[in-house]
Amino acid sequence: MEADGKNSMKFFYECSECRKHFKISPDLMVCPECSLKQQENKPLRGVLEVSFDGEVSKDFDIFDLLPVEKEYFPPIPVGNTPLWTPHNLRKKTGFDKLYIKDDSLNPTGSLKDRASYLVAAFALREKIPDVVVASTGNAASSMAGVGAAAGLNIKIFIPATAPQAKRIQALQYGAKVIEVDGTYDKAYELSLEYTKTHGGLSRNTAYNPLTIEGKKTVALEIYKQLGAAQLGAVPDWIFVSAGDGVIIGGLYKGLQDLLHLGLIKRMPVICAVQAEGSNAICHAFRNGDFIESYSSNTVADSISVDVPRNGYYAVKYLHKYDGRCVEVTDREILAAQKELASTTGLFAEPAASASLAGFLKEKNSIPHNDTVVILVTGNGLKDIDAAKKGLRK
Ligand SMILES: *Cc1c(COP(=O)(O)O)cnc(C)c1O
Fold first, then answer.
1. Domain contains 1
2. Mean pLDDT over residues 364-374, rounded?
3. Range of the structural domain that residue 277 is part of
4. Is 180 inside any structural domain?
C-alpha cells in the first residue's frame, strides 16, 4: 500500500434517511428498513451513502476518498477531465470567471464513466463477474466500455427508443443488450427482476450506492483544478443537468466530504437544470413531493426520466445547501447546444447542453464576477438525430 493514509480510512454505508450504519457489501443496495416504505412510481427510499472515518491531507489523492482500493480500478483513464476557459463565451456573457468542466472527454463519452469505474472496481474486488444495468443509453455504453477494460460480463436493459449510437457503442464493447419495449422506467424494473433471479451486481443508478459515490469525483476534481486548496475557495455556482438526480447527489456528496474534512468553508450554489418536459426534481423541489403518474418528454434523452431514482436524496441536498432548480425548454436546450459548439468547439449532447441553457436563463440574477462552472456531461456524437433538429430554423 502507498503511504498515503489510505490504511487509516474506514468506509461504511450510512442510510440517507435513518442514518443507520452498515458494512459495505455487494448484497446490500438500499437500507433494509427505510426501503420498506417504498411506494410505486416514486423515487427510491433508503438510498445508502458512503461515509468514512479518517482524515486526508490537503493534497490528497482522489482514490483516498473512495471506498475501493486503487489497485482494483480497471485500466482505463476515467476522470481527470479538463476544467477550461471558454473565452468566447466569457466575452459574450460578460462572466470573466466562467469555466467548463468537460466530462464528455471520459473514455465512453459521458460522466457516467465515473460511476461505472467505481462499480467495476468493486465487482473486481468482490470477485463478481457479472454486472447488470438499466439505462437510457449512457449508463449502458459506459458500463459496457469500463466493463470491457475490467474483463467483466455486462448485461444491459435499454429502451428500444434509445439513440442508436449509444446502443451500438455498448454492443461494440461486447455487452449483452436487451432491448425493452417501453420506457427507461420499465427497463429499470426488468433489470432488477433479472438480478434478483440470476444474481450479478446491479449498477442501477442510485440503487447501487457506489453510483452516487463514483460521481462525486467530479466535485473533487473541480476543487483541485480551481486551485481551491490554495485559495480556500470553491466556485460560487455549478450548473448541472439532472435526470435521476445522481450527478446532483454525487456533486453534493463530494463537496460535503470536503466540508467535513475542513478543506472548504462553504458550499457552492448548485443549480439543477431540467428539461421542462422532464422536471420531476424541480417540481418536487418547489412543491414538496413527487407526482405519481408522470410522463416525461424531451429531446434530451439522457435526462428524460419519469421517476427520478435519486429524487428524494437530490431534493434534500438542494434544500439543505440552498441550491436552485431551473427548467429549460427543448428549444433552449438545442440553442445552447449550438451556442456551445459554435463558440467553444465543444459538441455536447442535448442533456449535456442543458446545463449551459440553464446558466443562460439564470445569468441575469448572478453577479458577473462570480465563479461559475458549467458541467458538460456527454458527447454530441451520441445523438446525431437530436443535434440535427437544432440546425433547422
Ligand atoms: C445521465 C446523464 C445526465 C443526468 O444524470 P442524472 O444522474 O440522471 O441526473 C446528464 N447528462 C448526461 C449526458 C447523462 O448521461
1. no
2. 96
3. 83-110+211-391
4. no
Interval 269-314: pLDDT, tens: 999 999 999 999 999 999 999 988 778 899 998 999 889 999 999 9
**How do residues 180-192 score in pLDDT, each as one tens digit?**
998 888 899 999 9
Cβ of 378 less than 6 Å from ligand 1:
yes
110 lines ligand 1 (CB under 6 A): yes
**What's the domain count of the chain?**
1
Position 277 in a domain:
yes
Q: Where residue 291 sits, what CATH number does that domain have?
A: 3.40.50.1100
Q: Is 246 in the pocket of ligand 1 (CB under 6 A)?
A: yes
114, 65 contact by CB (below 8 A): no
Q: State which ligand 1 atom lies nearest to the alpha carbon of 241.
A: 10
| Ligand 1 within 6 A of CB of 113 | no
User: Quick check: 392 pLDDT over 90?
Assistant: no
Residue 209 has pLDDT above 50, yes or no: yes
Does residue 177 lie within any of the structural domains? no
